[in-house]
Amino acid sequence: MNKLLLVFAFCLPLRHLALTSGYGYRMHPLTGQYRFHAGIDLRANQDTVFAVLPGHITFAGYDAVTGAHIRLSSGDFSFLYGHLSQVFVLAGDSVPACRPLGITGSSGRVSGEHLHFSVSYQQKPVNPLAFLRDLTR
Ligand SMILES: [Zn+2]
User: Fold this and answer.
1) If you measure from the C-alpha of residue 52 to the centroid of ligand 1, how many angstroms do you get, rounded to a whole number?
2) How far apart are CA 96 and CA 12, in angstroms?
3) Strand ranges (DSSP E) for 28-131?
4) Domain annotation for the chain: domains and CATH numbers
5) Residue 20 C-alpha to ligand 1 middle, in angstroms?
6) How far is the CA of 63 from the centre of ligand 1 (A)?
7) What pTM value is reported for the model?
8) Cys-Cys with 23: which of 31, 50, 102, 127 at CB 3.0–4.6 Å?
9) Taking ligand 1, which is a single-atom ion, which protein residues have CB atoms under 5 Å away?
């Protein structure tokens, strides 16, 4: 039995990844301010979002900026899924990799529907594209 197959069970956050705004400093599309974008924006249209790694839900709720969103913690990593229209999980839930967590939407401060997805390692933001590339290599 190959243990690595179990250890490295993972899913992409969406079935299809199409980047609309990258990680790093940018002019904010709504406010016009030059600010750090701590995640990536992915094209979405009422798409299911998936748990990237197994872990537990540390937040499932709403705020005015990120809209309906979910935080998933997995060891030293944590993942944020923002601007959702539906949330299927509750804070405290344990989830396996690939569990559907919710549906994309345009809640919060957005100019149109997309998934805001961010990855942190030991509380510090990392480039989600680099993280996903390493995961899938
Ligand atoms: Zn974003």
Assistant:
1) 18
2) 13
3) 34-37, 40-43, 48-50, 55-63, 67-74, 77-87, 94-95, 100-104, 114-121, 124-126
4) 7-136 (2.70.70.10)
5) 9
6) 14
7) 0.91
8) 127
9) 41, 116
Per residue in 81-118, pLDDT (tens digit) is 999 999 999 999 999 999 999 999 999 999 999 999 99
Which residue in the block uniquely carries the two structure tokens 């998936």? 50
In the chain, helix, strand, coil percent, each to 5?
10, 45, 40
- 54 CA → ligand 1 middle, Å: 23
Q: How far is the CA of 81 from the centre of ligand 1 (A)?
A: 10
User: What is the structure's pLDDT at 90?
Assistant: 98
37: tokens are 């974008």
40 alpha carbon – ligand 1 mean position (Å): 5
CB atoms within 10 A of CB 114: 22
